[in-house]
Amino acid sequence: VQLQASGGGLVQAGGSLRLSCALSGFRLVDYGIGWFRQAPGKEREGISYIRSNGATYYTDSAKGRFTISRDVAENTVYLQMNMLKPEDTAIYYCAVGRPVASAWSASNMYYYWGKGTLVTVSS
Question: Which long-range contacts does 46-49 make (Cβ < 8 Å, 24+ apart)?
Fold first, then answer.
C-alpha cells in the first residue's frame, strides 16, 4: 500500500492549488480517502473525505472553497483548493481508511498515510 501526495507549493492569498494523492495497493471503490492538514504547533485536522461510493464530506472551513474528487481509473484522489487563505498554510496529507460517515475526520480511523505536501499561502 502506498499513497503519494503532491501538488503543494507557495501561493498568494486568493489563489488556487490542486493536490493529488496517487494510490497503489488498493482500489478507490473499496476504500475511502481523507485529506488532512497539520499547521505548525497545531493538531492534525480532517479537511475532506471521499467514500468508496463517491460521497464527499468537508470540514466547515473547506466548504465552498475546496473540492475533493477522484479518478477511479487512475486511482488518484484530488483536492482542488480555491480562495486560499494564509490560515490554510500547513502540510497536507492523504490517508486511506473506512471510517463511518460521522467519524471521517478522526485521524485514528485511517490505516495508511502518505507523506505530506507543504502548502504555503502568503498574505
Answer: 46/104, 46/105, 46/106, 46/107, 47/79, 47/92, 48/79, 49/99, 49/104, 49/105
Q: pLDDT per residue over 48-101, tens digit each?
A: 999 999 999 999 999 999 999 999 999 999 999 999 999 999 999 999 999 998
| Count of residues in the chain | 123
Q: Report the C-alpha gap between 49 and 65 in whole angstroms.
A: 14
Look at residues 52, 53, 58 and name the one whose alpha carbon lies nearest to residue 81. 58
Cα 24 to chain centroid distance, Å, stands at: 16
Cell 460521497, residue located: 55
Whether 69 and 77 have beta carbons less than 8 Å apart is answered as yes
Mind spelling out the 3-state secondary structure of 29-70?
CCCEEEEEEECCCCCCEEEEEECCCCCEEECCCCCCCEEEEE
The pLDDT value recorded for residue 1 is: 83
Cβ distance 25 to 9 under 8 Å?
Answer: no
